[in-house]
Every structure is written in C-alpha cells, then in structure tokens.
Amino acid sequence: MSSTFARFPPRLQQAIATRLGWSSLRPVQELAGQAILDGKNAIVLAPTAGGKTEAATFPLLAGLIEREPQGVGLLYIAPIKALLNNQCDRFATYAEMVGLRSFVWHGDIKGKDKQAFLKEPAEVLLTTPESLEVMLLSAKVPHTKLFGDLRAIIIDEIHALAGSDRGTHLLSVLERLITAANPLDNSPNRDVQRVGLSATVGNPEQILIWLQGSSQRQGVVIDPPKIPAKREIAIFQRDVLGAIAREASRKALGQKSLFFCQSRALAEDVAERMRDRSTEVFVHHSSVSRTEREAAEESFQNGNNVCILCTSTLELGIDIGDLDNVLQANAPSTVSSFLQRLGRTGRRAGQTANTTFYCEDMETVLQAIAIVELARSGWVESVRCSDRAWTVLVHQLLALTLQFGAISPERAWQQLSFIPDFRGITDEEYKTLIDHAIAEGYLFYSGGLLSIGERAEKIFGRKNFMELYAVFSSPILYKVKTATGYVVGSLEQDFVDKLVPTMSSFLLGGRAWLVEAIDHKERSIRVEIAPRGTKPSWGGFSPQILSYELCRKIHSILIEDTDYPYIDEQSRYSLVEKRNELGVLLRQQPFCMIDDGHRVTWWTFAGGQVNYTLKYLFVYLRSNWKIVADNFKISIESPDASVQSLRYVLDQVRSNFDWQSSEHRTEILAQLPPYRFSKFQPLLPDPYSVEIIERYLLNWEKTREFLQTQT
Questions:
Q1: Is this model's pTM higher than 0.70 or not?
Q2: Are 161 and 43 in contact (CB under 8 A)?
C-alpha cells in the first residue's frame, strides 16, 4: 500500500515539504490519513500537540484540491471560541499553501467580513456549535450555496462535547444543516464525512458510534501506540491558601505557569493572595470580561514571568505559547482533566510534562494521588452518552419553529428522531412533550403546524432570540464596571440580588471590589477598588460527583502500604495518619461501618452516584432516618439507627427489593432535590425534568453491582 504522503496530490506534497519543512508524517498522521483518504469517518486520538489536527486536515484538504468545492468544503468546529481563534492562523496557512482560503465565523467577527464571506465563501470554515446554529436560523445565510457541497467536518476536542448537551446540540445542528443545504433525499452530498479529534477518552468506539449520526460511511478509531514520556509530578499539602499562594508564587517566578483551580471563587481568592509577589498574575474564567481574558493570553505570549489562575477555560488544547509549569490547587475531579492539563507542558524539545498539586487537606491529597495512579495505569473515564437528551430536544423544537416559521410535529420529529441522543425517546413520549409545550404556552398549534409560543418568546426572544442559541445554561449576567466605564467582568443575578451598595464587596478578576451602585434596568454594577474582599458564591449548588473507579482507588491507597515518591513529607505524614486511623478499619472490615452512639457512618468509597442512590433508597425504606451522603460515605442519624439495623436493611434490599418496580422508582425519584442543569429544563414535563436529575445523581445498575460485593 502506498504511504499517506504518496497519496496526497503533488501540490499538497510540495507544500508540506517546502512550506512546512516536514520530511515525514507522524504515525498518527499516517494511520489517520489512510482511513480518511479512503472516505471513512474517524476518531483520531493523540496527545496534546501530537499532530492530530494535521492528521485530519491534510487528507481532507487533498480531496478539496482534487475537486474544488462550490462553497464550503471543510467545516472545522471547536467547542470554545478561544480554541477557534487559536487555530485560525494554522488553518489559514494550510489552506493558503495549497491555493484555498479559510474563514472564521463567530460573534466577534465584524458584520462586513461576514457579508464578504457570504458573497464569496472560503473553502474552509471554522466556527463553534452556537455560531453554526445562528447561521442556520439566519434568513441572510444562503444554506445551499454555502453548504450544498460540504464534504467533511472536523470536530476538535470531541470528548468535551460527546455526552453533553452541547454535543447533542452540535449533532442536531449538523444534521439539520446538511438537510437544509441538500433538501432532496437522494442528494449525493447528504453523507458528509466526519472526523473527531481527542487527546483523552476512555471509550473511543462509543464516541465514534455517536459521531456517525445519519452517516452510513465506515468508521474507524485511530489510536497509535503511545510513546512513554517522562512526567514530573509533585503533590504538596498546605493547610492554608496563604501558604499555597506563597509557594506557587516561588514556583512560578520567572516562568510561564497555568494555575488550575476547581472553582472561580478559588481562582479569585488565590490570585488575590499571589499579587505583589513579583509575578504578573491574571485570572481567566468565564465570568471575567473578554478584555481581561485577552490581556492574560497576550501577556502570556509575550512575557516570561506570568501566572494565569484559571478554571477549565484553558484546559482544552489552546496554544498559549511555551508553558513551563502546570500548577493545580487541590485536585481535578477526573483523570481526563488531569491529562488535559498535564499535556499543556512538555511541548518543547527537552522539556518534561509536569504538574504540581497544592492541596488544602488530606482528602484532596488522596484524590490527587488516586488520579495520578489511575493515569499511570492507563485508565481514563468513559464518556457517558445519552439517548434521552430532553433539554436539547425541546431546544431544537423551538429552533426548528424559528428556522421554518412553523413546522409540523411529524416533520420536526423526522429531522430529530434519528439523532443518537434522541433515539431512546419514544413517539408517545415525544407527543407528551409537544402537548405539554402547547399547554404551557411555549409552542402554539395552528393549521397542523407548531410555532414558537408567547411564553417562550418572552423568555428567549430578547436580542433576536440570542438567548435561544446557547444550549447550556446562560444565567442573567450583570456587567461590573468602574467609574471610568472599564468592564471588569460579570456576576450572576442571584448573587447581585444579595449585594448592598456602599456595603458589599466581592472578588472578581483577582481583585477586591466595593459596590457603589446597582442599575437593574441596565444590568450593571458600578464598583471601586476595595482594600479587602469576600468571595462571591459562584455557580450552582448540585454536589460534585466523583466516579466509582476514582473512589475505589482512594480506598486501595488507604488499605495498602505503597509509598508514593512524588508526595511531600507533610502529605506522607498525613497519609500514614489516615492509614492508621481509617485504613486499619477498612482492612479489618471490608464492609466498614462505624457507630459512634448517635450516628452510623458507612465508609463505602463507592462514588457519588452509588452513595446518593443508596441515600434515597434508605430514605424510602426508613423515612425516619436522616441521611447525609457524599462520594466516600453515608451517615445516618436516628434513634433506631445502628450497624445491625443498617445491615438488616441492606439484606432486605439485596434479597427482596424489586429494582424494576416503577412504583418504587417513582416514589424514590420524588425525593430528589429540584436541581437545575439547563435553562430549558423548566420547559419539560415534571417526569422528564426529574429524569435529568436522576441521570446526574443516581446509578441504579452500579449500585446493585456494588451491593453484591458487600457482604
């Protein structure tokens, strides 16, 4: 078989050799190139900076060279705008060197540039899922002219989309776009080739099935053998944030560092403590203004003494220049996140990928060790795909009414029912959703067609329905401005409602601000710099769920006597103490329950979903028990609670409980808190909304499996 490079058109071969100076392709590029040139759909796996972008792009450009498209031939989709901007120059170079053009489309691109593109489309288009929806709903965008000859789609960082509302939304929009651009059922361009790129995913075969959608092409996972690489890991336990900030500042001095934090509040707090320590400090998260984020990125590109405190906004493969250090406050919740962050370093020749953890307590030290050890063993979380994505289904119904003005329920279901994320929803359930939306005023039915209802228009109709385009929750935000009009960032309304002018202060952008005035009509807050600040309550209130596998690994760490050379003396001392306290009990009692007279604690180390399933199951069976659960244990307070009574209930569950009973299931689900995971969730019938909460919080099958191991 000829090599991938030999199969490229001469123009592409010459450009790669002369313009890029490449003498060979990497293994992932060779393997992916063969499959993509053969017309297959593919998931391409490679470490960050491992060449997977070129592995997908070059063979797809080869097809465009041999037969130039009429309009856009290649669509590149990134989950976030920052990654899109980051890839802009790279795609411009690759397209230009073979005589093609590329264009980036998102909300920050000027209208005149978009108009020029619509008049004369480039062959390669880079965009985000939300911007693609805007194009699809716009009457000014000629869909057939633009996308009627679309050949292929590249989805970058696909693990960040699959299994999420944004992934379901993207797949739905792609299918609708292909249909709109090729309205004839027998159009030869309906089966568009699809390529997904990812650095870390535990179940790539499942992701490939998800990516296929309506495509009938063959699919393949490209996962070349990984070359073992040296990694430097260090875990430090420091009990106060001041000590963490002080040591991180020393580590970052004179270098470029990313400091990942698990919450925006923590990022703000640590940033404030790191200021005035000889290192330039920035904060980068979704509530910080675009100006502030861009200033951080620019300073990072041009400086050598910069530390950016960030959440997951810089976790994806954005190239922000040569990076010396990855720092981590406490521990991420997944192995996948750890590997993504670790992969930001070690890109330069002679440099080693590294991560330094600064943990506030022994619990996060254990979590960090477990994540590192699972990564060393090659284990990564699987993406959990759903075939009952209710919130996106109702969103897509509203979007279809806007796209067509009005649409029949049958035609809408015809466009959506074959999408993998909706295949588990029955025709009868779909009809129930439609009836509910009509009854509640979100849709109205006239002449056999559905149109957007007055209630939905009131909620999502502002600014030409811009509230509808973003699938994931977009709470009402207030701009935070100084007296000179400089925008510091934004705060959510729930937090703003608690502020008192001239009295309240908060942290944002790594600084403390005093509230001068609040304008609810303009949704703005005027502030001045305050000497001290208190951190705002960012985000929601739903519990953080750790996986069963991660929690079982922590259990293993506690009962074994393995030494971990990458932890510091304080961490090692705390680990010995924890092993002597809890570890001894876990070794003696695999089924570890402790009765301290007024509370029974069962140390399950089974993860959040199993423990919350057990919690609500116990509440159903013993209504007088007060139960608190987390990822590692279940605590029961009640006059009649004892180790013996808990064992009795568990024996009942193992032997007599009917896990398939709809009556049991309904009564248990009725106890779940009304968590809100999507702004479209309130549009659903109650049972469908509860199902979303159930999916996040509970896992019936894993709980049954776990109980069979506990005797």
A1: yes
A2: no
